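Handout, page 2. Input:
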Amino acid sequence: MYLTMNRFKVKPGQEAAFEAIWTGRDSHLPQVPGFLAFHLFRGAAQADHTLYASHTLWASEAAFTAWTKSAAFRAAHGQAGSSRDIYLGPPELECFESVQHIAAGAA
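Output:
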């Protein structure tokens, strides 16, 4: 498995706008080969930002890379730069390859 994570620092008072952008968009992910799951998390609020993280789980790094070169990726990110004023800087992408997986109910 392969995990990609983006960390977003959202300016105070812009949290609802940020969440509306994410929850209202068509991510195009469910039909992408190798896509497993997506989560958007809200973290702690600081004086200058609220931290958010998006996690996307893929079957492999190759599946993620193929998605980043696809029409589905371009469609999902077509408006990405239109709301820059709600962020305290650009998102920070981090990628991880799985070295261990333990599932609920596993013995």
